[in-house]
Each structure stands twice: as C-alpha cells, then as structure tokens.
Amino acid sequence: MATAGAVVTYLLLFYLFLLLASPLISASSSAPVAALPTVAEQPQELLLSFKAFLKDPSDALSTWSPSTPYCNWSHVTCTGTGGAVAVSLSLQGLGLSGEISAGSVCRVPGLVALSLASNGFNQTVPLQLSRCTSLVSLNLSSGAFWGPLPDQLAMLTKLTSLDLSGNDIEGQVPPGLAALQGLQVLNLGGNRLSGVLHPALFRNLTRLHFLDLSKNQFLESELPPELGEMGGLRWLFLQGSGFSGAIPETFLQLEQLEVLDLSMNSLTGALPPGFGVKFQKLQTLGLSHNGFSGPFPKEIDKCMMLQRFQVQGNEFTGELPAGLWSLPDLRVIRAENNLFSGRLPELSTVVSRLEQVQVDNNSFSGGIPHSIGLIRTMYRFSASMNQLNGSLPDNLCDSPAMSIINVSHNSLSGPIPEFKNCKRLVSLYLSGNDLTGQIPPSLGGLPVLTYIDVSSNGLTGDIPAELQNLKLALLNVSYNQLAGRVPSSLISGFPAVFLDGNPGLCGPGMPNDCDAPRRKHQGLALAATVASFVAGVMLLALGAFAVCRMVHGGSNSSSPLKLVLFYPIKITGEELLAAFHDKSVVGRGAFGRVYLIELQDGQNVAVKRMISTSQPTFGAVKNGMKVLAKFRHRNIAKVLGFCYSDGEVSIIYEYLQMGSLHDLICAPKFTVGWNDRLRIALGVAQGLAYLHHDHTPRLLHRDLKSNNVLLTDEFEPRVTGFGIDLVGGEKAYRSLLASDLNYRCYIAPELSCTKKPTHLMDVYSFGVILLELVTGKPAERPASDDSVDIIRWVRRRINVTGGTAQILDPGISRTAEQGMQATLELALRCTSVMPDQRPAMDEVVRSLQLLCSAQTPPSTGIALEP
Ligand SMILES: *[C@@H]1O[C@H](CO)[C@@H](O)[C@H](O)[C@H]1NC(C)=O
Ligand SMILES: *[C@@H]1O[C@H](CO)[C@@H](O)[C@H](O)[C@H]1NC(C)=O
Ligand SMILES: *[C@@H]1O[C@H](CO)[C@@H](O)[C@H](O)[C@H]1NC(C)=O
Ligand SMILES: *[C@@H]1O[C@H](CO)[C@@H](O)[C@H](O)[C@H]1NC(C)=O
Ligand SMILES: *[C@@H]1O[C@H](CO)[C@@H](O)[C@H](O)[C@H]1NC(C)=O
Ligand SMILES: *[C@@H]1O[C@H](CO)[C@@H](O)[C@H](O)[C@H]1NC(C)=O
Ligand SMILES: *[C@@H]1O[C@H](CO)[C@@H](O)[C@H](O)[C@H]1NC(C)=O
Ligand SMILES: *[C@@H]1O[C@H](CO)[C@@H](O)[C@H](O)[C@H]1NC(C)=O
After folding, report:
1. Any idea which GO molecular function terms this record carries (predicted)?
2. Quick check: 640 and 545 in contact, CB under 8 A?
3. 608 is in an annotated binding site
C-alpha cells in the first residue's frame, strides 16, 4: 500500500507539472518528438507506472525503460509532428494480466489508441478508462474481461472505434453509449449481453459503418427498425444472438451494406419485398438457420457484387430467383434444407465464378444443368434429396476443381458416365437414384477418389477390379443388381453391409462364395428368389439385411409362422417345419436341438430350434436377431435368418460340411495335426476377439464349446451359437444353462454367483477348447474310465505328476511339444479360477499368432529364435 500511495503522490506531482508545462508544448510545436526531452519525460513516467502494475510474464515490455525515449519503446507508436503527438499503445497478445492502472495511462497526453486485446486480464472493464478522454480507439477484445459494460465509457466522446468483443461482458448495452456519436466501429460480439437494445443506440450512432452484436445468445430482441436508419453501415453482424421477428422494411435502405449476417437467429416471416434492390455493394448475405418463409425476392439479382448467398435451413418456397445464378461475382450458393422448387437453371459459363452449389433437401426438379461441369471454378455440387430427373451429364465433373458431387436421393436415371476428367474428385455420392448400367471401370483411374456411394440404384454387372487402385474410405454398392466376384481387396477392407442387397455378388466370406460348383445357376436362382421376395421385402434399419420375408403358415391362419431371412436363401416356413424330425438332428444342447436341413439348391443350413421357456415376443426376438445378424467375420458363422411361431424361435445358421470341432474330437480317432489345431485355436480366438473388442455393440458368446465351433475342410473355424441370451433373455438363458449338465465344464465357475456376465467367462470357455485341442480329448469326458471333466483331469495330472508331459496328446509328434506346452500354459491361464488372471481375447490372439508363426518354418530356411 505504501508504494502505491507513493506512486500516486508522485503521479500527482507529474500531473501538476504537466499542467504547468503545457504552454511549453505549444511553444515548441515545430520540434520533433524525440527532441523534446523535458516534455516527453512525463508520459514516460506515466507509462512506466502503468507498466509497473501490469503482470508481464514474457517480458514483452522490456524495452520500456527510462533510458530510452518512450516513442522508441516497442508497442508504442507516436505519430504526428509538432506539439500534438498522438500516442498509440498496441499491447495486444502479450500475455498481460494484472492491474490496468487507467489513472496513469489515461493521463498520457495524446493517447489516441489503446489496445489491450487478447490478454488475460480476468477482471471487469475498468471504470477509470473513462478518463482516457482523448481515446479515439479502445480495443479490449478477447482480454478476459467480465462483468457489466460500464455506462462511463460514454464519456469517451472522441471514440470512433470500440471493440469489446470476445469477452464475458454481461447485462444490458447501456443506452448511454448513444452519446458516442462519432463511433464508426462498435464490436460487442461474442459476449453475454442480454435484454433489449435501446432504440436511441441506433438512432444516434449514425456514423457507424461496422456493427457487431453477434453471438450474444441472451439478447432477446426484435431487429430494431432504427437500425435501418444507420445509412452508413457496411458490415452488420447480428448472427447467433436470439433476434426474433421479421426483418424490418427499413433494412432495405442500408445501401452501403457489404456484409449482412443474420444467420442463426429465430427470425421469421417473409423477406420484405424488394429485398436486395438497393444492396449494390452487398458481398455476403447470411440468412441461414432461421425460420424465414415465403419466396425469395427476385431483386437479389440487383446485388451485382454478391459473392456468398447463404440461406440454408429456412422454409423458403418457390424458385430461387433466376437472376441470382448469373451474378458475376457469386462464389457460393447455399440453399439446402429449404422448400425451394423449380428447375436448376443453366448457367452462363463465361461469367460464372461459382465454386460451391449446395441445394440439398429441397424440391428441385428437372435435370442437372449441363453447364455445371463447364464452370472452371466449381468444386462442390450437392443437390441430394430433391426430385431431379434425367441422366447424369457426361461432363458433370469436368471442372478442374470439382471435388464433391452429391446427387443422392433423386430420380436420376441412365448410366454413370465415365468421368475420366475428374482429377480432383474426392466424393461421388449417387445413392438412391434409378441409375442403371455398370459401375464404370474408369472410376478406378481417378487419382483422389476416396468416397463412392452408388448404393440403392439399379446398377448391374460386376464391381470393377480397377476400383482396387483407389485408396477408398467408402465404397457403398449395396442394393443394386451387381453380380460376380467381388475384387478381393474390396471384400476385406470394408464392412460386408456395403455389399448387401446384391445377391449375385460372391466372394470369400459372403453368403455366396464363388467357388461353389453351382455358382452360375445359383446366381440366377438367387436373383429369381429375390425377385419373388420383392413383395415381402422390407429393408430393415441400418441396411444390414438383404432380404426379409414374412410367411404366414399355410394361409392367413390364426397362428402365424414368421420367417425372417437376412440372406437370400431358398427355404419356406413349411419346409423348415417339415425338416424338424429326429433324423435330421445333428446336435443337442441346453438351448435346444440343432437340425441339419438341405435346401433346394443343395446348400445346407443348421437350424437351432430353441427350447421355449420365456415366450419372447416377435419384436423382442427380431431385435435380438438383428443385432446377431450384423456380426460379420471370417471366423463367425452367419446367422441367416430365423423363424418365429407362438413364442418358439428357430435360428438358421450357416452350416459347414465338416461339422463341428466336437464331432472331430469325438470321432474314433482324432487325427488332426498340431498345425491345424493351432489354426483352429487362432481362428476361434480371432472370432471371439471380434465379438469382444472389434465390433460395436460388443457381444459375449456365452455358449462357447467345441460343438459351436464349425470347421471348413481347411480347418478354418467358424464360431456359431452366440448371443442366445439376446434372443430368449437372461433369465431363460441361465435356467436352461443350469439344466444342461453335459457341458457344464465350459462354464466359468463365477457364473453362478455373479449377475453380470463378463468377457472373461468366454475366455474361460475358450480355455477349455484349448485344453481339448492340446489333449485331444473331449471336454466333458476326457477319459472313458473316469467321470471328471477336462479341467479336473488336467489339474489332477499336473498335481499328481508335477509335469505336463502326460497331458499332451500322445498322437502328436514330439517335434510340436514346445508349441503344445506353450498352448497348454495359455489354456491354464484362460481357465484360471480367478477371472482377473485370465487374459483378454485380443491378448490370446497375439499369443497364438506368435505360436503359429513359430510353427511355420520360415522360407529363408533360417531357424527362428526360440
Ligand atoms: C529512437 O528512434 C529514432 C528513430 O527511429 C532513432 O533515430 C533514435 O536513435 C532512437 N533513439 C534511441 C535512444 O534509441
Ligand atoms: C479469474 O479470477 C478468479 C478470481 O478472481 C479466479 O478464481 C479464476 O480462476 C480466474 N480465471 C482465470 C481464467 O484465470
Ligand atoms: C482489436 O484487436 C484485435 C486483436 O488484435 C484485432 O483482431 C481487432 O481487429 C481489433 N479491433 C479493431 C476494431 O480494430
Ligand atoms: C442522441 O442525440 C441527440 C441529438 O443528436 C441528443 O440530444 C441525445 O442526447 C442523444 N442521446 C443520447 C442517449 O446520448
Ligand atoms: C430438410 O429440410 C427441412 C427444413 O426445410 C428440415 O427440417 C429437415 O430436417 C431436413 N432434412 C434433413 C434430412 O436434413
Ligand atoms: C423429369 O420430370 C419432369 C416433371 O417434373 C417431366 O416433365 C420430365 O419429362 C422428366 N424428364 C425426364 C428425362 O424424365
Ligand atoms: C450426400 O447427401 C446425403 C443425403 O443428403 C448425405 O447423407 C450425405 O452425407 C452427403 N454426402 C456428402 C459427402 O455430402
Ligand atoms: C450404404 O447404403 C445403404 C443403402 O443406401 C445405406 O442404408 C447405408 O446407410 C449406407 N452406408 C453408409 C455407411 O453410407
């Protein structure tokens, strides 16, 4: 306090001195600034004292020292010669905070500009600043100021520029500011101002050419008609500030406007007739995201300098004024999400400088203008969700800048042009039209094409292999009539749903793998099947379903049998029921019997007829099945569909000729070699890891056992029987599981005492399968002369012999012993009684991958490190 007091006294003395010295200033009017040591010293001291209260962590004001004239200090500018030296302090962006000692700084004679913008003052706007009466410009923007806007600023009557934007200033705009009649720039944007704007503000501030009240979301005001009287306004920013009501007619008089931004308010009503007629200088018009309605006044075509026309997100109706399109400077038309109709006009390709046309989600009709592709500046044309018809112009992306084309969800027909010139094309969205013909292979030659969506059209032919050349992030070809082999890199890289709804497509991992001998006929048959389904086709949410059909058993009898297919397989509800006889049972489990059914086309499917305890509703079952059907992985068996009848559910799974791993292990002689066993283990682990970690929503298998591991003839496993709890509910799941003593050994011990199932329970079950593979014995009864399960059998042997040698399958050559030992150890970790000691499935995958790679001799012939 003592120092502050001293400083004040000191300053007062200087002030007195300044008063006495003022005649001196005028006396030496012709001398240059730096040559006025005695006079210049006083502002120097005032400024040093101002500095003394600031916190300047980066030492930005280090040049402010008594030894140099203040006009030479950094961030200080002196202008003017003679006695009237004008001083500007530009202290923006210096990381300053601390106290603003207005008492000092305001006494610096000739202080005309003060900027404290972009600092961290964290305080209210100092009232004392009102003493800086010589100020012409005050800039406090983004200075972390808060609190009310002081009335006292009205005393700065020389101000022409006041910038308080980007702070947290709250409360009303004081009507007193109307006294600042010389103000040309007023920026109060981005604060928390509230209340109603006083008309006097606008009536008196007739010199304003820049007014920014934007982003003050608590302002609740209609647009003041007085604003229209500020004839000099060139920039008017009122966006995002809670303005409501209509645009007053007085706005039409703002002839000097260059930018008018009224977007993101709650403005309504029609634009005043003649809107635009006087806006000779308007460059940017922003009306987006309001509730404007009615037609757009055609006088907009008088705005010869208009560059940006942004009216998206309103309820405008009628045509876009024809003259708009030919304005010579226009770059951007954004009119999406309105109710515009009419045709898109041909454009004058000579004058047009259009870069961006977005008119999505309106009711435009007619064809796509051929001139679009001729405008050399055009880079985005997006007109989705309209009623455009006709064909795609061949030259649509001939503009050397064209990057984004989106004409999805229209009624366009004809073929997709070759589009050979589209060197910049990144996104091509054509979905939801009536396009026919082939996907042009030439697309594969476009250098930066990354997103292709041609889904839901009538495209035929195959997926061109050339598309593999592209670094695609999206290739959606679903719901066309494409056929043939899918290029391999396009299968593995994308979710299978992007291929859905093209029954003729085939490839590994798809419902139709190309190598089946009946492929050609099957393709035809499938197409026919699909055609016959059309009446019942119902595309379920998320596009995951190829075909969904409801059959009502026999006729429309009282007990409906509902068959829902996710893939186009050839089966009817009646055939399904007829196949449920004892001869076709291939498995029995806790949840029901599994029947093997041969379809008309020779394909086999497995049908799990669930024991019904909970009587779930059709809706609940369908929801559960929808989730299950979306899991797609090389090692996960597909859910092809399901059948529902009176609470009884049968799930149709894909079936593999080799049967299950359990079948193999229980065969008289289990002769599968170690390499193949490891591959089976890895595949199952990968399938489970996919369920647990890679897919959302995540899924627990909850009934993993060797019966539920199907095998291809190359010992590639597919896991089936998952997610039963999703179909029948948790309660039914648990009660059924408890009733099944046979396969208890797969179930993690903690299940009975926890409510919430965890992925570590699946890990346990997986560990049991690993034990089966290592020992070559079935889990439920490893030794015919003993009734213990495999867990106990293994643990006992380890305890008895203290080693593991007697556990490993003796049928396997000793050369694999090391790998088998490691696998046994992994299995023991997985089947640990303590859940938290079990590894997660992705870790298991990594361990097994290591074991597999150690198994395969490297081609170089160099032995791997052990
Ligand atoms: C102050 O600046 C002027 C002009 O830039 C220069 O001539 C003069 O030498 C400077 N004085 C000092 C003390 O740095
Ligand atoms: C601003 O100051 C207050 C105390 O006056 C303090 O609580 C707050 O953390 C400060 N905010 C910043 C951003 O420094
Ligand atoms: C105020 O200062 C900020 C930061 O330097 C600047 O961007 C802004 O243009 C200034 N305001 C005025 C009206 O000059
Ligand atoms: C507005 O201007 C008029 C005359 O130009 C003046 O009488 C009045 O006081 C001003 N209003 C305010 C609030 O300063
Ligand atoms: C289409 O525009 C209307 C406004 O006219 C809007 O309400 C609707 O959400 C938009 N539809 C989509 C899908 O964006
Ligand atoms: C496009 O639709 C209009 C009606 O909106 C119709 O008159 C015209 O013939 C259609 N053109 C084509 C090529 O289908
Ligand atoms: C294309 O339009 C559709 C429908 O309006 C929209 O869902 C999609 O995101 C758009 N794509 C691009 C790249 O604009
Ligand atoms: C792919 O296209 C289908 C059908 O138009 C659509 O349902 C699905 O959402 C699209 N997927 C993506 C990711 O665009």
Report:
1. ATP binding; protein serine/threonine kinase activity
2. no
3. yes
| pLDDT of residue 522 exceeding 60 | no
Q: Which of 212, 703, 725, 789 is catalytic?
A: 703
Q: Residues 550, 677: one domain?
A: no
Instruction: Looking at the structure, tell me whether residues 541 and 595 fall in a common domain.
Output: no
Q: Is the CB of 290 under 6 A from ligand 8?
A: no
Min mean pLDDT across 181-195, 344-358, 363-377, 577-591 is at 577-591
Residue 375 lies in a domain: no
Verify whether ligand 6 is closer than 6 Å to residue 77 (CB atom): no
Taking the C-alpha atoms of residue 146 and residue 166, their distance in angstroms, rounded to an integer, is: 10
Query: Do 723 and 845 lie in a common domain?
Result: yes
46 in a domain, yes or no? no
What pLDDT score was predicted for residue 856? 56
Pocket mutation for ligand 4, best pick of 202, 204, 205, 230 (most atoms within 8 Å of C-beta): 204
Cα of 167 to ligand 2 centre, how many Å?
14
CB 298 within 8 A of CB 274: no
pLDDT computed for residue 657 by the predictor:
77
CA dist 420 and 417 (Å) reads: 9
Give yes or no for a contact between 456 and 478, defined as CB atoms under 8 angstroms apart.
Answer: yes
What mean pLDDT do residues 686-715 have?
89
- Pocket of ligand 8 contains residue 232 by CB under 6 Å: no
Residues 736 and 696 in one domain: yes
In a shared domain, residues 675 and 743: yes
828, HSE (Cβ side, Cα atoms, 13 Å)? 17
pLDDT in tens, 106-121: 999 999 999 999 999 9
How far is 400 from 420, CA to CA, in rounded Å?
A: 11
Instruction: Please work out whether the CB of residue 408 comes within 6 Å of at least one atom of ligand 5.
Output: no
For residue 631, pLDDT over 50 is answered with yes
Looking at all shown ligands, the one closest to residue 546's CA atom is 8
Instruction: Name the pairing type of β-strands 592-598 and 585-589.
Output: antiparallel
Q: What is the CATH number of the domain that holds 700?
A: 1.10.510.10
CB 505, CB 486: distance < 8 Å: yes
Domain carrying residue 538: 527-554
Q: What pLDDT sits at residue 12?
A: 41
Sign of the CA dihedral with 794 first, then 798, 804, and 807 last: negative
Q: Which two three-digit tokens encode residue 463?
A: 């997926």
Answer whether 191's CB lies under 8 Å from 216's CB. Answer: yes
Number of domains within the chain: 2
CB atoms within 10 A of CB 174: 17
Residue 63 beta carbon below 6 angstroms from any ligand 1 atom: no
Does residue 690 sit in the same domain as residue 546?
no
Closest Cα to atom 5, ligand 1: which residue?
Answer: 72
**Is 220 domain-assigned?**
no
Evaluate if residue 57 carries a pLDDT over 70: yes
Q: Indicate the burial class of 254 (C-beta count within 10 angstroms; 0-12, 13-18, 19 or more).
A: buried
Instruction: Based on the residue annotation, tell me whether 703 is a catalytic residue of this protein.
Output: yes
The rounded Å distance from CA 699 to ligand 1 centre is: 76
- Dihedral (Cα; 827, 828, 833, 836), 10-degree rounding: -70
- 581 and 641: one domain? yes
* C-alpha torsion angle, residues 93, 97, 101, 107 (rounded to 10): -10
CA of 101 to the centre of ligand 1 (A): 27
* 544 shares a domain with 583: no
Which residue's CA is the closest to the ligand 4 atom numbered 5?
204
Instruction: Give the ligand 3 atom nearest the CA of 90.
Output: 5
The Cα–Cα gap between 795 and 768 comes to: 12
- Would you say the CB of residue 181 lies under 6 angstroms from ligand 1? no
Q: Cα(718)–Cα(655) distance, rounded to whole angstroms?
A: 9
Q: List the structure tokens of 755.
A: 């409510």
Residue 394 exposed, middle or buried by CB count within 10 Å (0-12, 13-18, 19+): middle
The answer as to whether 795 is a domain residue is yes
